[in-house]
Amino acid sequence: MPETWNDTTPTTATHKHLFHWTTIAPVLALVALALTWGRDISGIVVAIVAVLLGGAVLAAVHHAEVVAHRVGEPFGSLVLAVAVTVIEVSLIVTLMLSGGEGTSTLARDTVFAAVMITVNGILGLSLLVGTRRFGTVRFNAEGTGGALATVATLAAVCLVLPTVTTGEDGPSFTPSQLAFAAVASLSLYAAFVLTQTVRHRDFFLPVGAKGKPIPEDEHATPPTNAETWTSLAFLVLSLVAVVGLAKVESKSIEEAVAAAGLPHSFVGVVIALLVLLPETLAAVNAARRERVQTSINLALGSAMASIGLTIPVLAIATIWIDTPLHLGLDATQITLLAITIVTGVLTVVPGRATRLQASVHLTLCAAYLFLAAVP
Q1: Rounded to whole angstroms, how far apart are CA atoms 331 and 360?
Q2: Cα–Cα nearest to 328, from 118, 133, 162
């Protein structure tokens, strides 16, 4: 993923420097984790931990991008999407373990928020940046269409069907239904990854004005093996820090949402915005370089991973978490999802987009955020 890595990472010489913020942030986050774990912390400490948590998230995605640049596109988008999903799952599970009001719907709210923010927010912003700079942007309709179809199927199976099934009271699956949804999600996600990285890799490469794949940036020198392994190590450290600090901050996040007068379901939006902010920057940077296909890979890949990887993990986690898992969307959410899928299809089919498509997707994202705050 050269276009992303080149914009968000330092030069090779700087990357080797051990005192760059991307190596300092995970270490400081781990120190903070050791000092605050299991303790009641004051407001000032909560703020400091929140900053370090954000730094650890940014560092994790940075190091994922370094690894991604080494393996190339479309593998790069996959690495970043999986790394972000690990962070998302960690935040969901730690908040669910804390118990309290609204934990039964936290997974649904977070996954749905991730889908709406990626498919409408990240995609719309990337299209806007690309069309403002290049007029009309182009992408591969075959690969993008397949990705959107996968997202739509995963969302329907995991988020819509629990609302209409009758095996359990409320918007929930029975244990056997949840097991089926988890296996189906993981299988479909694996099938997509195989298609994206092996069988039809060219469907997911950036395309130029004539629909031909754009060659990789020659000036973006890939990281060395040593740099790649170093980033992989710091990626693991960053993810450990994120998981731990998320647990430390879980109560504070819920209290902040309540203090702002927002519904508890907005906690899911906060989680999604936190983990997707670095990926948003990566997608926008790709769009600025006329790599809108990479931006789309990031957006739809994250939506897909958010469902296809999160639901199986949560299905396993319910064995130890004594909290109901309500995955079914309500009527407003189903309506927004349906409009999003229809709009996405109309955007994808031509294989090119203008500012109008960008505006439509951004409007849908704004409508979702407003209704999440004011249901």
Answers
A1: 21
A2: 162
User: The domain 2-373 is classified under which CATH number: 3.40.30.10, 3.10.129.10, 1.20.1420.30, 3.90.1150.10?
Assistant: 1.20.1420.30
pLDDT average, residue stretch 19-43: 85
Please state the three-class secondary structure of the chain as a single string: CHHHHHHHCCCHHHHHCCCCHHHHHHHHHHHHHHHHCCCCCCHHHHHHHHHHHHHHHHHHHHHHHHHHHHHCCCHHHHHHHHHHHHHHHHHHHHHHHCCCCCHHHHHHHHHHHHHHHHHHHHHHHHHHHHHHHHCCEECCHHHHHHHHHHHHHHHHHHHHHHHHCCCCCCCCCCHHHHHHHHHHHHHHHHHHHHHHHHHCHHHHCCECCCCCECCCCCCCCCCCHHHHHHHHHHHHHHHHHHHHHHHHHHHHHHHHHHHCCCCCCHHHHHHHHHHHHHHHHHHHHHHHCCCHHHHHHHHHHHHHHHHHCHHHHHHHHCCCCCCCCCCCCCHHHHHHHHHHHHHHHHHHCCCEECHHHHHHHHHHHHHHHHHHHCC
Q: Where are the domains of the chain?
A: 2-373
Task: Average the pLDDT over 294-307 and give the result.
Answer: 89
Alpha carbon distances (Å) from 165 to 161, 171, 235, 310: 6, 8, 40, 21
Q: How confident is the model at residue 163 (pLDDT cuts 50, 70, 90)?
A: very high
Residue 194 gets the label, from left (phi > 0), alpha (psi -120 to 50) or beta, of alpha
Integer Cα distance of 59 and 286 in angstroms: 19
Hey, what are 201's tokens? 């890799």
Match 């999440």 to its residue by tokens.
372
Mean pLDDT of 349-371: 95
CA pair distance 81, 283, nearest whole angstrom = 11
Rounded CA separation 289/374 (Å) = 37
The predicted model scores a pTM of 0.82
Q: Average pLDDT of 286-305? A: 88
Q: Are 258 and 266 in contact (CB under 8 A)?
A: no
Structure token pair of residue 29: 């986050």
